[in-house]
Amino acid sequence: MKKTILILTGVLCCHLALQAQEAEKKNVSQYYRNALTSMMVYHPEDEFGYDVYQIFKDLPPEDKYDMHDVDLRVLDNSKITGVAKHKGNGLHRQTYGSSIVLTAEEKQANADALLELMNKADIGKRIVAKWFNLTGETLQDARFSTKLIEDRSDYNASVLDVEKARFTVEGMAALRNVSEELISHSFVLVSDMTYITAEDRADAAKTTFAVLGGLLDALSGGNAGRRLAEDVGDIADKFTGFKVMTHTYLFQLEWNDSISNIFYDKYYTAEPNPERIAAFIKDNSSFRLTYLGTESSNYEKTKVAGKYNREDLLQMITVRSIDKNIAKLQKRFEAFRVKAPITAIEYNPKKGTPTGFRAMIGEKEGVEDDMKFEVLECKMVKGKIEYRRVAVLKPVKNRIWDNRFNALIENDKDGETEGTLFRIDGDKTKANDIVPGMLIRQING
After folding, report:
1. Does residue 217 sit in the same domain as residue 294?
2. Which pLDDT score is estimated for 403?
3. Same domain, 136 and 264
4. Listed residues 286, 319, 334: the one ending a domain
5. What angle separates helix 123-131 from helix 104-120, to the nearest 10 degrees?
6. Last residue of some domain: 334, 358, 383?
7. Domain-located, residue 258
8. pLDDT at residue 436 is higher than 70
9. N or C: which end of the chain has fewer CB within 10 A?
10. Among the listed residues 108, 114, 124, the one whose alpha carbon sits nearest the alpha carbon of residue 294
């Protein structure tokens, strides 16, 4: 294989290794990732409500997003009001024995209540404050900075000098580009989980079969129904597990040129300025969230008692149920989709031609073998990032990476460990145009 020095120009796709062989061994690209603020609905009335709350606080970060959590991560269900046609406080909930998912009307009512609550709590403003690193012990010494934006992008401090940029066309163009690529891609994910234990199902099964058994006894004069009920109960009690119905609601920060201009012109200050900071704090209308949609998943893991303890089992199901809904939401909303770099290229040993491409996404992101992904080359064109499609890839069947939470511990057989393997879909000559560091993203449909 010829060793070629590859240099990708552009803000997003730089930092390739000097040699292709070295580039194949590691992630060689820095790229803009969506920012994710993760929240949950806490149900103090649930038997496992506090356990879920404790697990959620310690969940591993989403590795395909820049985690952008704010100081409010838990919404108390008992304090949520205004859900249409609902008695008392709290969201519409999934309950054992009901339909698989909430109705569209119930989900919309929940989303409306969550949106109102988060806007009242200034979640959008908190997200903006974190982007611009609002710091200070008191109002008198509080200030903003662009350090976080600098860290998450390839812009340096001089380019992101807001005070200077506001007076030049080029400077404002750079700020708008950062706003479009980073700040406007700020999402809030709120997960609401309803748990059912194996014992709950066993009790329900016993009750159900006891009633049926009574009917059978009345009709046949025997005790076959009672024996059936006892057998079902004994079997259920030998398992330990949880079943969860998770409803996940997706919101996005409203951020455009008009809103960013308000922030830069009225509030941003790199030096202590109590008046501007106080004005930012008092603004309760400029920085808001908008609702995009919701997805639901029914996830269950029932194992023979002793293989998992309750805490581990609860953690696994919590993580996987949220991941499952994130994958569904990515398919629906293009802006929310992850972009992942090509990390390795496989070659035909005799011909030296590329035969496969690897990227570190897999089952956690909902990758399936009938999906298609575009390969993107990113360039800076007149101060703005543009993406050009280079080729289209498809995952190779049975070569999709199982990167779900605890998959390595759970799986009894070896699987892909270096990402999902993709192959060219369509024009095979396009394979020669793909280099490590280019990004892939799922195509609509």
Report:
1. no
2. 82
3. yes
4. 334
5. 60
6. 334
7. yes
8. yes
9. C
10. 108
For residues 318 and 363, membership in a common domain is answered with no
SS3 413: coil
More confident residue, 355 or 219: 355
pLDDT of residue 5: 29
Same domain, 323 and 380: no
Whether 8 is covered by a domain: the verdict is no
Residues 131 and 166 in one domain: yes
Q: How does pLDDT run across 344-384, given as a tens digit for each residue?
A: 999 988 888 899 999 988 888 889 888 999 999 887 776 66
User: In the structure, what pLDDT confidence band is assigned to residue 407 with cuts at 50, 70 and 90?
Assistant: low
274 CB burial (10 A radius; 0-12, 13-18, 19+): middle
The helix/strand/coil state of 246 is: strand
Q: What H or E segment, with its residue span, contains residue 150?
A: helix 147-152
Residue 212's pLDDT is: 47
pLDDT for 100: 53
pTM for the complete prediction?
Answer: 0.78
Q: How far is 18 from 22, CA to CA, in rounded Å? A: 7
Range of the domain at 224: 198-241
- Give the helix/strand (H/E) hosting 190: strand 186-197
Q: Find the range with the poorest average confidence among 162-166, 259-263, 438-442.
A: 162-166
Q: Residue 10: what pLDDT?
A: 31
Beta-bridge partners for 296:
247
Residues 6+ apart with CB under 8 A from 132: 144, 145, 146, 148, 149, 263, 268
Does residue 27 sit in the same domain as residue 166? no
In sequence order, the 6+-apart residues with CB closer than 8 A to the CB of 350 are none
Mean pLDDT across 200-204:
52
Q: What is the C-alpha end-to-end distance of the chain, expressed in Å? A: 36
Q: Are 124 and 259 in the same domain?
A: yes
Q: CA 59, 62, 68, 69: dihedral to nearest 10 degrees?
A: -20
Under DSSP, the state recorded for 347 is: E
Q: How far is CA 368 from CA 54, 362, 365, 391, 400, in A?
A: 32, 8, 9, 18, 7
| Bridging pattern class, strands 384-395 and 373-381 | antiparallel
Q: Is residue 292 located within the same domain as residue 409? A: no
